Amino acid sequence: MTDKPAFVPLSILPTPLDEAPRLSAELGVRVLVKRDDLTGLAMGGNKARKLDFLLKDAIDKGCDTIITTGGQQSNFCRMTAAACAKLGLRCILILGGDEPDHDSANVLLDRLFGAEITFAGSEDWGVLQGLVKERAAAIGETAYDMPVGGATPVGALAYVHAADELLSQMAQPPDWIVIADGSGGTHAGLLAGLPREVRVLGIDVSRPPWPLTESIPRLAKKTAVLAARTEPMGELIIADHCGPHYASITEEARDAVRLAATTEALLLDPVYTGKAMAGLIAAVRSGRIERDATVVFWHTGGAVALFADEFAEF
User: Fold this and answer.
1) How far apart are alpha carbons 140 and 137 in whole angstroms?
2) CB contact set of 251 (below 8 Å; sequence gap of 6+)
3) Which domain covers residue 70, as residue numbers?
4) Exactly one of 11, 74, 183, 206 is catalytic; which is it?
5) Which candidate in 156, 236, 255, 267 could, as Cys together with 223 as Cys, close a disulfide (CB 3.0–4.6 Å)?
6) What are the tens digits of pLDDT across the range 93-122?
7) Co-location of 90 and 38 in the same domain
């Protein structure tokens, strides 16, 4: 590229914080929904916040090529492709698995946004990350490589600011926040930005090769330093609702997606937010979340995956 791309903000902020009265009545706790599915970029999602920070960092460093990776129906990859299209950057995606017979959902959008796609033939995160590093090294200094989910201190910094945004929308902090944990970057940013009395329940939906119990606290500390905040003091709380493997549809996730749709017309996806809602339901029914609690369900987007061929029979 001859001209340095100019950064422009990608997210429409603040996102709404909505009461969910019918869902609250069903569960017996007060549920509010933080609508990061409405960040605006490429059908929305929490990754727009991270990309605001990550792509500004890339442009500031003189990079014109973005390389990242994820599962075949990765929301992060879809939104990275869209952000690159908007900013005039080259986008290279390394997607897990084998090339499908035809494109659907996020893969279709990846191509529509002009991304260059390589299918790795593997779902192993180590393999995928290694391929990203190889491509970046081959291109040189103008390449900016991003790990799965943008889980770096720069990316997680977005959720320190998101924590401030949420607290400004409430008369008092919530008792609980429930989020889907894939790479753990969103969870780490929230821990770095929230007071310790706000408990964040992360629903593990991917079982990454490095345990979230190790990676999230480490990333939260680095993010707090970057944000000039005190060291995170909140307890790390994780519940596993992944199912047999990443992107497998569980019956509890199907039920949760249907419940959100029929009570609040809220669209969740079967890979991330559906499992996060299943985790919220399970935590209430088990008594982990108290019946008088105020809970913020952080909707991280991803409903595009509802239209993927592998999830067609819902």
Assistant:
1) 5
2) none
3) 47-150
4) 74
5) 156
6) 999 999 999 999 999 999 999 999 999 999
7) no
